[in-house]
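User: I'm new to structure prediction. If I give you an amino acid sequence, what do you actually give back? Let's try with this one:
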Amino acid sequence: MFAGETDQVAASRPVAIARVAIGFAQGLALYGLNEWEKHGLVDGVSSPLFCACAMLILFLPVVLLGGLRTLRTRTLIVWGAIAAVVVAGLGAYHGTIAIPTGAEHWPGPPLVIFTAVGLFIAHHLVTGADADQRWIASYDRYFDQGWKDGVRLAMAVLFVGALWLLLSLGGALFDLIGIKWVGQTINKPWFAFPATTTFFALAIHLTDVRASLVRGIRTVALTLLSWLLPVMAVIGAGFLIALPFTGLALLWDTKSAAGILLSAAAALIVLLNAAYQEGEGEGHPPVALKWAGRITGVIIAPLVAIAAYGLILRIGQYGLTPDRIYGAACTLVAVVYAAGYAAAVFWPGPWLKRLEVTNVIAAHVVVAVLLALFSPIANPGRLSVNDQVARLDRGAVTPEKFDYLFLRFEAGKAGMDALQALAERKTGPDAAEIARRAKSALARKARYGEATTSVVERKELARVAGGGAFPAGFLEQNWKSYEDPLQNCEAGRLCDAVVADLDGDAAPEVVVFAMGDRRVYGQDKGLWSRIGTLSGSYCAKDGEALKAGRFAVNADPKPLADVVVAGRRLRVVPDNDNCPDGTAGDVADVSEIKPPPPETK
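Assistant: Good question. You get back a string of structure tokens that encode the predicted 3D arrangement of the chain. For your 601 residues, that looks like this:
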């Protein structure tokens, strides 16, 4: 260790104690939050307070850890207070719009991830301005602090990961000799939370007092990344050259073209900044990187333009969803980068000098966009709900294809309020059908894992051939989604069913004809389950024959009677049908024709 660094370490001991104390306190607070939620003390009323506390405890300590030794005391106090108010406000708002059930009490991943991104950017806008004593700092200052702290955070995460790897290994070693309490203690929340946050704070401090080491790692990492720029530039240029010959249709067929294009643009932006670093200097960058940078600055714009066009088309076809709103926000930021970088290529002066202005403007735009997305200004859930309901009202989507479950499970309280309003609708086109389907969605407990139709819907989506009725309990049973006999039935596309005794036990079985999927169901100890499948070809007119009563059942079960439809004999193949050697054979299901996905997907 150099003498200067030794003196620096000694002088930083009070800061080290403060940082470790902050990390330890953060861990204890997170443990307290965990106990608060674990014991069911969070309800709809206290959910905003819980989310506000969670965001505050997650992010304010990190701001303080980064601000010590970097910001002046007064600036740190003011910036810490502003950051605390903002993150707590975002958390409280999240608590008011999310449905307070299960893990929803905790802030959702989008809020946590994007808040971390926005806070990182805002923190370095503040630290740069404080260091230069002006509102907009020099680009060299932003570059040095931003990339250095990015490396510090990455090293701190790796440090904590290594810690837990060693702790897990230690627990396993003690388990080998029968000492279980070590591993059990390590996994206890009261140990795990403080240990994680304390060692994270320690890593932040160690990388701070070894600034020269961090800068060396940063330089190596940026140098390596910069030489990936020519590779990505060639890939991007080649894609744009080939596009006129392939057309856009293949892009739209992927259903994810906008996301891939924006990801490619983001990769180019990161690599171009890795090559640019602090700008053109003596021997930096090499000529190859200069030309790769110019090509990159030009090709980002068309990639972003195509992504924006695809997103606009998708929204026009299927309306807004939270994912599409996030995509639109990313596109807006990408447009800022694309326009600025393209201008930098043709701007006279040093190589890509205007890139610096673009990066500073884009940083402010990112912070503003993120604040809008997670506040009442542009809440994706609310905007999506309003747009989807408006599409239903104007007939852009039919009641049958409208995604009621999106409102029920993916749009928070705004979605639930809108779904309740639809369930109570009494006037307007298709009001009765909309209300019926909305009530069915409200009755669901989960988006997936339950029958795709409620009891009310099942009674209206199937008819028994010959005018009979379904056996008691068949429709009312709590079916799983993959077991639901009528999962392929819809209004206007009714399923037909044959109810008859197929095995001679005086109890009826049910054969459901659903879009080529012909399954046989039987009852055992009060529960219905699939017991077989009808063999033979599927005919489109089977439904007409069943409706007209042109069917019969063979009276000689062997082991199950055949079903005769329009003169064609269809053998029932039991699910436990055995091979000639006595081993159990698998019965191949006929292909299932699933209903089209909801319009919002």
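You can read the tokens as a compact description of the fold. Here is one thing that stands out. The CA atoms of residues 83 and 568 lie 74 Å apart.
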